[in-house]
Write a structure and sequence with these properties.
Elements lengths: L1 H5 L3 E5 L3 H14 L2 E5 L2 H8 L6 E5 L7 H10 L8 E5 L4 H10 L3 E4 L4 H104 L5 H9 L2 H33 L7 E3 L1 H11 L1 H4 L9 E5 L6 E3 L1 H25 L2 H6 L3 E9 L3 E8 L6 H6 L17 H12 L3 E7 L3 E9 L11 H10 L2 H5 L1
Parallel strand pairs: 1-2, 1-3, 3-4, 4-5, 7-9
Antiparallel strand pairs: 6-8, 9-10, 10-12, 11-12
Length: 466
């Protein structure tokens, strides 16, 4: 049984004495080992270039490269440093033995040889060498498994975090969606009624004013009571101002209708499937909703928006989700500009003018490129590298979930098979580039589009209700 088990074990004997080589090789071969021989250290090193033995029996006293030098070379090489080396020597002094062991030898065999001792030491160190290799392999396998498991667990943690946020957002979105739909509906009906009646009201008032003019023409001298009342109500001013009031009412009603239209166009709660839409409508609707944040405030002037729209056909996309991306990027741009005003000195603020640039163009004839840039605070390279990670935010606690850009990235890259890239420089500004194909392929995402849209639209909801 031992012979069969040892047949694959290779022993290299290095000795310049042919007699020692013959005795040891014959004995070990009969025991069941595969034996290689070398008559010098140089020959031994040449031999191991082609194949590695499991154990080396190495003579110390050899001409040319002696055993110590040969051992040092073996231990310096990564491929051979772990192979057990047993020195064979007639030297019995302690100093030589210590020197050999310090160089990495595992044992000594003293000449003349005792076959039983040689066999016992060879078996022992082969067994130890095999055990050591097994332990190393098991450690490597275990390390790999631990790394794989750790990676899987980290992935699961990130997925659970994302799911947790999305569940919370979904719950909030349900009530927010109902509120937006309800508000839009409740405003839309009465404002349509008001707007629709403004024109006939204007016509009726003009008729009444014309009638008053006729009375004045045919009765230039009214009774004292009528004359006094005409002066009290300032009839001439009233006639002039009434038409201005009607014009203002018409402008206000038109503005409300535009806001309602923008709310419905922005949310698109009824459009969860891929549709062909005008990208510029979505951007304009988002800007309309953010108008309150863009206009001048006591601490800063109006944030200027510069638009450069290109000409291209309608784009196949998920309108509500893409509008949410515009909302996230534009709201972040406003935040960055406002941070400049809040941190800089008064003199610097007076010379500073916050601007947002929005440009669109056709790229490679089958893609749309949308650039949104600002001259706000800017970000460091370290922040840019992490900005699309879930839950990463540089905003104070309570002012950001850290999911806005992560979900925006998911919408553009995963849902629209596009690209979302960012470049930024501190105290210069930031630019986001969105690239999406004009025509979308069939969706493969198993999650329902309605659920995704609800999850994504809620982020930055403060900007919506402001």
């Amino acid at each position: 049984m031992d012979n069969i088990m040892n047949k694959s074990d290779i022993i290299l004997i290095v000795d310049d004495n042919p007699t020692n080589l013959g005795v040891l090789s014959d004995f070990l071969d009969e025991t069941g080992y595969e034996v290689w021989v070398a008559k010098s250290g140089d020959m031994a090193l040449q031999r191991i270039e082609y194949a590695l033995p499991d154990l080396i029996l190495l003579d110390i006293m050899m001409p040319g490269m002696d055993g110590f030098e040969t051992c040092r070379y073996l231990k310096d090489k990564t491929q051979t440093c772990e192979i057990p080396v047993i020195f064979m020597t007639a030297l019995s002094d302690t100093e030589s033995k210590v020197k050999g062991l310090n160089m990495g030898a595992v044992d000594y065999i003293t000449k003349p040889f005792q076959q039983e001792e040689v066999l016992a030491r060879v078996k022992l160190h082969l067994k130890l060498y095999k055990l050591m290799r097994q332990v190393a392999e098991q450690n490597q396998t275990l390390e790999k498994k631990v790394q794989e498991r750790t990676f899987e667990l980290n992935q699961m943690v990130e997925e659970l975090k994302t799911m947790q946020v999305q569940l919370v957002q979904n719950e909030k979105m349900s009530s927010l969606g109902q509120m937006v739909a309800g508000v839009a509906h409740e405003i839309n009906n009465p404002i349509n009624f008001i707007y629709g009646n403004l024109e006939p009201a204007e016509e009726y008032i003009e008729n009444l004013l014309s009638l008053i003019e006729m009375y004045q023409l045919y009765h230039p001298e009214p009774d004292a009571q009528i004359k006094a009342y005409r002066e009290d109500i300032e009839l001439e001013f009233l006639r002039e101002d009434l038409m201005k009031i009607l014009s203002s009412m018409k402008v206000g009603a038109t503005r409300i209708l535009e806001i309602v239209k923008s709310l419905r166009n922005f949310s698109r709660l009824d459009e969860s499937e891929i549709k062909q839409v005008d990208i510029h409508e979505g951007i304009d609707s988002t800007l309309m909703i953010l108008q309150n944040r863009l206009k001048a405030k006591p601490e800063r002037p109006t944030i200027e928006v510069i638009k450069e729209y290109g000409n291209f056909p309608q784009v196949e996309c998920y309108p509500g989700q893409l509008n949410q991306v515009f909302m996230n990027l534009l709201a972040n741009a406003i935040d960055a500009i406002e941070e400049c005003y809040s941190q800089d000195s008064l003199a610097k603020v007076q010379d500073y003018s916050g601007k947002i640039w929005i440009s669109t163009e056709l790229d490679n004839s089958d893609e749309v490129k949308i650039k949104i840039s600002d001259n706000g605070k800017g970000m460091t390279e370290k922040v840019v590298d992490r900005m699309f990670n879930p839950f990463f935010t540089t905003k104070p606690v309570g002012k950001g979930t850290g999911m806005g850009l992560a979900i925006s990235y998911s919408i553009v890259v995963d849902k629209h098979v596009g690209k979302l890239e960012c470049s930024s420089k501190v105290n210069v500004g930031t630019e986001f580039i969105i690239q999406i194909p004009i025509h979308q392929k069939s969706p493969t995402n198993s999650q329902s589009n309605v659920e995704l849209e609800e999850n994504n639209q809620l982020l930055n909801s403060k900007s919506l209700i402001q």
